[in-house]
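Quick one:
INPUT:
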């Protein structure tokens, strides 16, 4: 006869084991622990304040769906806050279906907006890959998506953009900067910049598997198979190696995220002032990378 593993806190059947804490948790105590840690991160970073109009970067996947659910549950009744969703359609056939995101947001009672590469740039990621191959597709897509998301959020009056990035995502980003030897990114202190909507990451201290479980318990989003062009991304290799190492050293991802925050807080490199691109009228550094990418792609017309 087999016996189920009991929750460390109440002896009800456990649904998850946290390797880093050594605790088995039932559904009630898992959800309570999860939400308390998200709220703690929000308070620590002062990410949500009275009067905020928060745009959720809503892909429709498990992370962003869980975030939209959490923000609605936690802050939905506050009259001094507004929450809405933005979905960016990159134009990747069969990967992103904006209609599904719209249905979910409508079910949640959240205003939903969308913007597309096709309308903004007159080209889709499928066409970019057809012309340039998929070697740099993630780099191209990331620049164009971030620019369009910031523009859309700003035009809709957002004061913050909330991302569903979790602990694994953040730890991978820090390690990628280490592998690249990117000292600037590791030690840069963030500053508020004109025309750039500040970003917040409420799930920064929650492991991917816990976000996935929270999502499965509350929103039951069908997991997608991933972007078809992401197989060349450095992040995939870093994810594999980091997960293998973290299996034996469970606190590794937390250590990397803490390292990133410490380096950013104590670093002496301040982000350069942004300028406005003379062509697209969007904020950029010395050179508008989005316009550079579009020029490179369109040379093949």
């Amino acid at each position: 006869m087999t016996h189920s593993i009991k929750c460390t806190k109440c002896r009800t059947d456990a649904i998850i084991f946290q390797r880093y804490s050594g605790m088995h948790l039932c559904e009630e105590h898992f959800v309570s622990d999860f939400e308390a840690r998200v709220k703690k991160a929000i308070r620590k970073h002062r990410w949500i304040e009275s009067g905020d109009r928060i745009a959720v970067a809503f892909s429709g996947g498990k992370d962003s769906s869980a975030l939209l659910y959490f923000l609605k549950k936690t802050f939905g009744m506050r009259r001094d806050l507004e929450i809405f969703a933005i979905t960016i359609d990159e134009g990747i056939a069969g990967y992103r279906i904006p209609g599904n995101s719209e249905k979910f947001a409508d079910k949640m009672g959240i205003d939903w907006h969308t913007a597309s590469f096709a309308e903004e740039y007159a080209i889709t990621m499928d066409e970019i890959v057809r012309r340039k191959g998929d070697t740099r597709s993630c780099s191209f897509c990331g620049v164009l998506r971030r620019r369009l998301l910031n523009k859309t959020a700003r035009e809709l009056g957002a004061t913050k953009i909330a991302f569903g990035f979790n602990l694994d995502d953040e730890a991978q980003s820090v390690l990628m900067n280490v592998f690249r030897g990117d000292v600037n990114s590791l030690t840069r202190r963030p500053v508020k910049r004109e025309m750039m909507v500040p970003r917040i990451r409420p799930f920064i201290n929650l492991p991917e598997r816990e976000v996935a479980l929270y999502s499965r318990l509350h929103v039951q989003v069908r997991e997608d198979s991933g972007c078809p062009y992401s197989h060349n991304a450095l992040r995939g290799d870093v994810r594999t190696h980091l997960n293998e190492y973290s299996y034996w050293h469970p606190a590794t991802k937390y250590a990397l995220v803490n390292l990133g925050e410490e380096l950013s807080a104590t670093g002496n490199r301040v982000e350069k002032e942004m300028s406005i691109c003379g062509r697209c009228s969007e904020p950029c550094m010395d050179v508008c990378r989005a316009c550079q990418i579009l020029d490179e792609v369109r040379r093949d017309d």
